[in-house]
Write the structure tokens for this entry.
Amino acid sequence: PNVHGGGMSFGTQPEAAAEPESEEVICHYVQDGDTFKLPDNKTRVRLWGIDAPEKGQAYADEARSRLKELCEGKAVRLEIKDTDQYGRKVAIVWMGKKNINLQMVKEGLAWHYAYFAPDAKDLAAAEKAARKARKGLWKDKNPINPYEFRKQSR
């Protein structure tokens, strides 16, 4: 047997995990607490795994303002997860080592969107901690999930 690995052995190399698609962009204009536009003014980015309050809903303005503060006009890195039915890039947004999606949930300015990110344990834990500490939208007695709010508004 060839102990130096030069024989005909196929499929013995562990397959490298696919690197998530990553892209450096400028967050040009924050539309709401979980969506922003790129400088081309066409491409929109939806923060993966979170759902921020909708316009007209409690804490919508606070969520939008905080996302603006965190990234508007700044270079961010998108870890692209998907493209949604509206053509938006769905991504984890990174500012250096800071996960902006997670930050929004930690501050009580967005819900963990468990339907689309059921395995995001960091987001689930952040929401639980924000609820317990009554941060942001969790100060309200009965906060309405943005998904439910959208359904009622149709």
Remarks:
- Residues 108 and 137 are 6 Å apart (CA to CA).
- The two ends are 70 Å apart (CA to CA).
- The beta strands are 21-26, 29-32, 35-37, 44-47, 50-51, 75-83, 89-95, 98-99, 111-112.
- The longest helix spans residues 121-133.
